[in-house]
Amino acid sequence: MKTELIQDAELVTNYINGNESALSVLIERHKQKIYSFIYSKVYDRDVTEDVFQDTFIKVIKTLKRGKYNEEGKFLPWVMRIAHNLVIDHFRKNKRMPKFHNTGEFSIFSVLSDSTLNAEKVLIKDQVETDVRRIIEELPEDQKQVLLMRMYQDMSFKEISERTGVSINTALGRMRYALINMRKVIEQNNIVLTN
Amino acid sequence: MAKIYSNASPKQHNLNPKDETISFLLNYSKALSVINYNKLKFEALLN
């Protein structure tokens, strides 16, 4: 009996009834069409191989579970599975796109890690310590306003209420605090940049 | 002189899955067994 004369539907029935070689005939018969279809969408051999494999795993499971309704449309059914898996692939890729570094261009030339490296962390800590030392040198009323404003994020209204002075007085103290800090920095040639 | 534009014919790749893939699928099918029990279906891979 020539296998090419056996219709898909009959091969499917044979397979469901336990004839494993029927599956081999079905795959052999349709593999190029299905593979080409997948490749025409994804243009990647490895991905095509994966999708092809996943397609037939679904086919095998459905047939073995007895959930396939034979309507004489085996190939369109398989193509639909492949098509849906291609869509799943694109959705997954969109969520987390892969970038392949080629020889000429590396993605790391445009992507950078913005976290501070160890050296910069040390410098940052040093700068912050220096700033605190300078603040300690300020007159008490100016220091108080500056600390409330910069370190406690208080509004000038809140500062004036807490310290019992007018808003304008609080503003003036803040202004003088900054002027005095600048003077100290300049006079002592302190470097506060990272 | 007019340029001649021609569509390059698409290269015919060998668009077939690898033998290893086919072999895997056939072995997977042989190993897969679906067991029905109380309206439930269990998939088992026989070794």
- How much helical structure, as a percent, in the residues of chain B? 25-40%
Which band does the percent of strand residues of chain B land in?
25-35%
**Runs of chain B with pLDDT <50, length 5+?**
none
Number of strands of chain A: 0
Number of helices of chain A: 8
InterPro entries (chain A): RNA_pol_sigma-70-like, RNA_pol_sigma-70_dom, RNA_pol_sigma70_r2, RNA_pol_sigma70_r4_t2, RNA_pol_sigma_r2, RNA_pol_sigma_r3/r4-like, WH-like_DNA-bd_sf
Protein name (chain A): Sigma-70 family RNA polymerase sigma factor
Family (chain A): Belongs to the sigma-70 factor family. ECF subfamily.
Organism (chain A): Winogradskyella damuponensis
Overview of this structure, please?
The complex is a heterodimer of chains A (194) and B (47). By secondary structure, chain A is an all-alpha fold. Chain A contains 8 helices and no strands. In chain A, helix 2 crosses helix 4 and helix 7 packs across helix 8. The model of chain A has no long low-confidence stretch (mean pLDDT 89). Chain B has one helix at residues 19-31, and strands at 32-37, 40-45. Chain B has a two-stranded antiparallel sheet. The longest helix of chain B has 13 residues, at 19-31. Chains A and B meet through helix 2 and helix 3 of A and helix 1 and strand 1 of B.
Offer a quick outline of the entry.
With 194 residues, chain A is mostly helical. Chain A is built from 8 helices and no strands.
Write the layout of secondary structure elements.
The complex is a heterodimer of chains A (194) and B (47).
Chain A: H1 8-16, H2 20-42, H3 45-64, H4 74-95, H5 118-136, H6 140-151, H7 156-163, H8 167-187
Chain B: H1 19-31, E1 32-37, E2 40-45
Antiparallel strand pairs in B: 1-2
Keywords:
heterodimer; A: 194 residues; mainly alpha; Rna Polymerase Sigma Factor, Chain: A; Arc Repressor Mutant, subunit A; 8 helices; 69% helix; rod-shaped; B: 47 residues; 1 helix; 28% helix
